[in-house]
């Protein structure tokens, strides 16, 4: 299994965007460009604070005022910026926002008292780079021409893009703005769709339209651009909408690749003024992962970026953003340990009023990431009513500068799939508003059911992991008869057994009751088929495996709807495991599911399941009481070879179910389940155990069986010398930090009285706070 890909998350600290209004004084275009053949590369991870040359003590600020303020008021505010020790670096009057620079430590506080000023806030916790006054143009990377032919890729197949291309590849009149680290406009798969006249840089917060200013300062933006609109030219790869155009607005600054608020504001304004149809924003606005209205600086950032996004939408732009890669519940915020990321991060408390920009702003389509099996990617942020759509973001193959291609993980990779589908929609519906395009995206999305994960709240139609569902490119171009709607109920994830008949009725309807529905399915387990007329899936499964099943229902006008769910088929009778006895010679194909059970008595320790030997890549899952799946388990081990270990920290009594799942084919593998039985000394009611002795830090365990109806339960240590502490816990062994009762005096005389008695086993720990000897332990109760 490619575990390294799961953990890599696209080396991106990028996760969502921002920006909007009036064009400031821009950098002048030079009379000519210098030819540079070296590729501009950047090896720092996104979001890191890298040392750059800076104007000593100069900080950047947003100064907000009423966009409807009279010109005299605006002029007075700009004059006040100078009076208070600053300069106006860029002005976005249409949204009532200035970008100011100042070396005065009291600049923000002084300016907040000026008439007409609504908010003032620092945009950074680091100095403005010296390059802000004279930015360089990124080098044009040397190019190689791809020789490999276009290949089938799971991300394009799973969203139906491959089928969409046969109907409509997108209109050249539609432009998608890639607001990112720049784009390699010379890449073989991008050059024919790139629009230089609508591309620019907004690094440092001021528009720079010089030729090449839009170019890449990392690899991220080029990867995003390829997913959206790489050309269908027979080489390399194909984007979701290969017929539309892309423009680059470089938001990130060189060296740090950070996306500061003033940069994003400039970018959204430019996007609106250029008439982009869609923007993709695979980042969050630095330096704060969340901007909180209770903080004066962040309140200004929140409002400035919000105005910019609204400006772009008002100009007809649909904005799509990545939801983030922290596996964080955006609907239940509590702490942030990563901000600010341009200086020294500290741990701070955050609330749901604190927003991830631009993903959580009104109108922005926040996108989570899914895997090839339609599960939530392990890194993806989530949250009920915070995620609007889902798209593939794990192992996404796309373009990088210089003519190359790589696979990356991240919601940064998921978001451009949605932007590409939005571009297809805009091609088919050129007069739709952003709100109308959003509505179509949501209505056409394929519902994904929640897995067995308590974090995924909501319904199949709209939940915390997948929002309205996985985006559907084919539906975007499959117009059918206007007005018809096909509705399909997602049945949820299914389980069956090899050799046992199975059936599932798919429920679907059409807004036109006179339509005839036709059913089809892909990914069904071997031995099952779907009746094309009735939607009944039936048959007898023949192979143990977990499949991702997509059912599509179409009416006679060619309107269709799809739902996706998993179907796990297990072996007929799980093989029994014996403590410490290996089961050898195990083998299976990719997707194979071998199942085992092991009966575990009460009180055991060091329970673990281990695979060893052989070749290939099996993954290991275990669960008490019920059969595990790859997404529902008590323990999992997903390494990249055959050596897997599932260790159960606190073992319960009962039957443990074990699943070996073939991430790829495997053979010659051995599975061993093992545990250690409890050798804890047993106490007899009212009878002292001792004399006990121990060194400092020593632990001695005992247990007492307490029947139903018992009262007056207590444990005592008496006599002896030194300092022994006493800890008691019901059902499992206590520690010095986990217990039902504790007694920690400075001697050996300790008493633990249990007021609320639960029948069963009580475990006792006598711990040597210092060395002790001659102590007696007694456990007693009244029957």
UniProtKB/TrEMBL annotation:
PANTHER family: CEREVISIN-RELATED, PEPTIDASE S8. This is Pre-peptidase C-terminal domain-containing protein. It comes from the Bacteria. Keywords: Hydrolase, Protease, Serine protease, Signal. PROSITE patterns: SUBTILASE (PS51892), SUBTILASE_ASP (PS00136), SUBTILASE_HIS (PS00137), SUBTILASE_SER (PS00138). The active site is at residues 180, 220, 412. It holds the Pfam family PPC. SMART domains: CADG (SM00736). Residues 127-146 are annotated as: Disordered. One of its GO terms (cellular component) is membrane. GO terms for molecular function: calcium ion binding; serine-type endopeptidase activity. It comes from Actinokineospora alba. Residues 486-576 form the Dystroglycan-type cadherin-like domain. The lineage of its organism: Bacteria, Bacillati, Actinomycetota, Actinomycetes, Pseudonocardiales. The keyword Zinc does not apply. Residues 1-28 form the signal peptide. The keyword Signal applies. Belongs to the peptidase S8 family.
């Amino acid at each position: 299994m490619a575990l390294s890909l799961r953990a890599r998350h696209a080396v991106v600290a990028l996760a969502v965007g921002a920006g909007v209004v009036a064009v400031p004084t821009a950098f002048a275009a030079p009379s000519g460009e210098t030819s540079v053949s070296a590729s501009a590369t950047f090896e720092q991870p996104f979001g890191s604070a890298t040392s750059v040359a800076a104007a000593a003590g100069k900080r950047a600020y947003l100064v907000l005022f009423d966009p409807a303020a009279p010109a005299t008021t605006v002029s007075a505010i700009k004059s006040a910026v100078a009076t208070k020790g600053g300069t106006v670096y860029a002005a976005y009057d249409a949204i009532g926002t200035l970008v100011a620079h100042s070396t005065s430590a009291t600049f923000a506080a002084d300016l907040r008292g000026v008439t007409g000023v609504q908010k003032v806030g620092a945009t950074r916790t680091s100095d403005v780079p010296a390059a802000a006054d004279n930015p360089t143009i990124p080098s044009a990377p040397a190019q190689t021409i791809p020789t490999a032919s276009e290949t089938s890729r799971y991300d394009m197949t799973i969203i139906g893009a491959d089928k969409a291309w046969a109907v409509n590849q997108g209109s050249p009149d539609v432009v998608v703005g890639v607001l990112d680290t720049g784009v390699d406009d010379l890449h073989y798969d991008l050059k024919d769709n790139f629009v230089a006249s609508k591309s620019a840089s907004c690094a440092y917060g001021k528009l720079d339209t010089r030729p090449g200013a839009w170019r890449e300062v990392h690899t991220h933006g080029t990867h995003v651009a390829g997913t959206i609109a790489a050309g269908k030219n027979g080489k390399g790869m194909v984007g979701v909408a290969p017929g539309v155009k892309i423009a680059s607005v470089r938001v990130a600054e060189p060296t740090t690749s950070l996306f500061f608020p003033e940069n994003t504001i400039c970018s959204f304004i430019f996007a609106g003024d250029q008439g982009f149809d869609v923007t993709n924003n695979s980042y969050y606005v630095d330096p704060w992962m969340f901007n909180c209205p209770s903080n004066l600086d962040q309140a200004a950032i929140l409002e400035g970026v919000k105005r910019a996004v609204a400006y772009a939408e008002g100009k007809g732009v649909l904005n799509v953003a990545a939801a983030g890669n922290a596996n964080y519940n955006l609907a239940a915020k509590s702490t942030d340990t990563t901000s600010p990321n341009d200086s020294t991060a500290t741990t701070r408390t955050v609330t749901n009023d604190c927003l991830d920009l631009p993903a959580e702003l009104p109108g922005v389509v926040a996108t989570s990431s899914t895997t090839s099996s339609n599960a939530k990617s392990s890194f993806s942020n989530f949250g009920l009513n915070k995620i609007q759509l889902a798209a593939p973001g794990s192992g996404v193959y796309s373009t990088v500068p210089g003519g190359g291609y790589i696979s990356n993980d991240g919601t940064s990779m998921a978001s451009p799939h949605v932007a590409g589908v939005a571009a297809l929609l805009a091609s088919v519906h050129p007069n739709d508003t952003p709100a109308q395009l959003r509505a179509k995206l949501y209505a056409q999305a394929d519902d994904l059911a929640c897995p067995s994960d308590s974090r995924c709240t909501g319904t199949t139609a709209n939940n915390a992991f997948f929002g309205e569902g996985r985006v559907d490119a084919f539906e975007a171009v499959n117009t059918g008869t206007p007005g018809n709607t096909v509705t399909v109920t997602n049945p949820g994830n299914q389980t069956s057994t090899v050799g046992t008949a199975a059936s599932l009725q798919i429920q679907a309807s059409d807004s036109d009751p006179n339509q005839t529905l036709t059913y089809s399915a892909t990914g069904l387990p071997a031995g099952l088929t779907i009746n094309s007329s009735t939607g009944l899936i039936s048959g007898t499964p023949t192979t143990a495996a977990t499949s991702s099943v997509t059912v599509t229902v179409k009416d006679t006008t060619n309107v269709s709807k799809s739902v996706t769910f998993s179907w796990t088929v297990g072996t007929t009778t799980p093989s029994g495991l014996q403590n410490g006895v290996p089961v050898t010679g195990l083998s299976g194909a990719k997707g194979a599911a071998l199942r085992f059970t092991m009966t575990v008595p009460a009180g055991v320790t060091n329970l673990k399941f281990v695979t060893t030997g052989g070749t290939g890549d099996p993954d290991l899952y275990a669960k008490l009481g019920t059969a595990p799946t790859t997404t529902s388990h008590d323990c999992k081990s997903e390494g990249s070879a055959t050596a897997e270990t599932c260790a159960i920290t606190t073992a319960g009594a009962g039957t443990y179910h074990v699943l070996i799942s073939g991430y790829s084919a495997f053979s010659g593998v051995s599975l061993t389940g093992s545990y250690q039985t409890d050798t804890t000394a047993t106490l007899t009611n009212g009878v002292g155990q001792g004399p006990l002795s121990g060194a400092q830090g020593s632990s001695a365990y005992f247990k007492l069986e307490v029947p139903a109806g018992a009262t007056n339960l207590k444990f005592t240590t008496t006599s002896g010398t030194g300092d022994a502490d006493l800890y008691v816990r019901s059902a499992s062994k206590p520690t010095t930090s986990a217990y039902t009762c504790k007694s920690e005096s400075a001697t050996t005389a300790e008493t633990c009285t249990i007021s609320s008695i639960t029948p069963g086993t009580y475990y006792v720990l006598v711990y040597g706070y210092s060395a002790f000897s001659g102590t007696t332990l007694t456990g007693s109760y009244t029957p």
